[in-house]
Specification:
By secondary structure, this protein is an alpha+beta fold. The protein has one domain. It is built from 2 helices and 8 strands. Strands 4-3-2-1-8-7 form a 6-stranded antiparallel β-sheet, covered by helices on one side. A two-stranded antiparallel ribbon has the order 5-6.
Length: 135
């Protein structure tokens, strides 16, 4: 009998979840404010349990709130996301470039991520040369 190696731990799951990868990037760098308008370069995340799917999409924003969201289809057109929500949708605010989580009656979690609003990577400090390599 051959024993199977089940070394998959929570870290491996986290690394494969597109939502958590993006959320970490927003947390590391922060995001600029999202002004009113229509954004055709957002990512919509759909989560159930520990699995997540991320899709390109579009979102309408007014007063720092998402008013509508759309999935981008392969032909470049958009289809509005319509779900039955667990709670009445009032204020889908945006904080640090990510919308408040929406929950469907099937416990699916949905967020809109404004990836073009992620702040640029900070410049690192240049290291001084090692004295042993100095001429």
């Amino acid at each position: 009998m051959i024993a199977q190696d089940n070394t998959t731990d929570k870290k491996d799951v986290i690394e494969t979840n597109c939502y958590l990868k993006w959320a970490q990037k927003f947390e590391e760098r922060g995001a600029m404010d999202v002004e009113d308008g229509t954004y055709t370069d957002v990512i919509l995340t759909f989560r159930n349990g520990s699995s997540a799917s991320c899709f390109n999409g579009k979102a309408d924003v007014k007063n720092n709130m998402v008013t509508a969201m759309y999935l981008k289809l392969e032909d470049g057109t958009f289809e509005q996301v319509k779900r039955k929500w667990k709670y009445e949708i009032k204020d889908v605010t945006i904080q640090n470039g990510i919308s408040k989580t929406l929950i469907t009656i099937d416990d699916e979690l949905i967020n809109v991520m404004f990836v073009k609003k992620i702040k640029p990577k900070k410049k690192g400090y240049e290291k001084a040369p090692d004295p042993n390599n100095f001429n």
